Amino acid sequence: MVIENRTRILYTLQILQNETDLEHPITIVEIIRLLKERWNVDAYRITVQQDIASLIEAGYPIVAVRSTQNRYYIQDRLFSVPELKLLIDAVEAGKFITKKKSRLLAEKLATLANVHDAGKLKRNISLADRVKSENEAGYAVLDVLNDAINAGVKVSFRYYEYSGAKRRVFKNGGKPYILSPYTLTWNGDFYYVVGWSEKHGRIAVFRVDRIADLPALLEEPTVKKPKGYSIGAFTEKAFNMYDSAHETVTLLCDNQAMNTVLDHFGMKIRTKPVDEGHFQFNAEVSVSPTFFSWIFEFGGMIRILGPESVKKAYRDMLRRQEQLSRGS
Predict the structure, then answer these.
(1) Cα–Cα dist 161/171, whole Å
(2) CB distance 280 to 272 below 8 Å
């Protein structure tokens, strides 16, 4: 009898959570019917009323609409429908998450809504051609790295990139990297781990879904973070987390490029008007092909003023590209 009482109150809570909201309250009679139909549980008006009173006393946000037949519904949910829509969109858009995992996560998130709102969670955002990770172990890798950061210990892992034939090529001659992980960061739709690499002798960044196996947790404590280390400052300098030398560059921009510049570098950058149509600013960036391609895509609206070494590297890249184009 005790077991039946426990299951009855849990089933009653499940009905209220799955079936009700402000627009869809439910009566005691309807709860009794559903208990019988779904779980073959016999219940009576007074026992269901007592169960609901116990749930309210326990803190569940159940509202009673007083009338000849009292009606009940769950008032506040962990997530509202707009919040669930936002979370589902993020899960389906994230490149780090595989298509299979995205689908499973979206389905789980949908169960947090009641049956009346579930249909509203069908998204109409076009993501059919979205490039997604192929690494199904990404979740587990991320979890191990997070544990290592919390425990303050080093990790060991193999890391790969793809060859021109779309085959995995292990970096570091196939030997594991030893990393003191400091931070996990989301950038450009992928997760990255940032920390002190013993191979490089400096702060390095690795894309999590390119870690081949589950990282091994080592017993050695992490190397202390360099003085002044800040993940915010680090990611501001990187272009798509491209790991290369950082330099302070001066950029001359058309006024029309201000929105793009603020989107990338943030509102705190200091800009200086040059004339009615242009402004300039200094930024510390990762000088890389990714940075140069970012400059190139604006067709002259953003230009590199200095230093001369960066200007030369940019001109050399453009010259090589022109020569290759002519050769083709």
Answers:
(1) 7
(2) yes
* b/e burial code for range 156-169 (CB count within 10 A of at least 16 → b): bbbbeeeeeeeeee
The vertex-144 CA angle with 206 and 159, nearest 5°, equals: 30
Q: Whose CA is closest to 179, among 294, 207, 139?
A: 207
Q: Nearest CA to 161 among 169, 152, 153? A: 169
- Average of per-residue pLDDT values in the chain: 84
At position 194, the amino acid (one-letter code) is V
pLDDT greater at residue 89 or residue 35? 35
Backbone angles phi, psi at 169, to 5 degrees: -125, 115
Rounded Cα–Cα distance for residues 121 and 114 (Å)? 11
Q: CA–CA distance from 299 to each of 292, 294, 323 (Å)?
A: 12, 10, 19
As beta bridge partners, residue 306 has 250
pLDDT tens digit sequence for 271-311: 999 999 999 999 888 888 888 888 988 889 999 999 999 99
More confident site: 123 or 142: 142
- At residue 62, the 3 state secondary structure works out as strand
pLDDT band per the 50, 70, 90 thresholds, residue 22? confident
- In order of start, what are the domains of the chain with their CATH numbers? 2-74 (1.10.10.10), 81-121 (no CATH), 138-226 (2.30.30), 246-327 (3.30.70)
Alpha-carbon distance of 141 to 95, in angstroms, equals 15
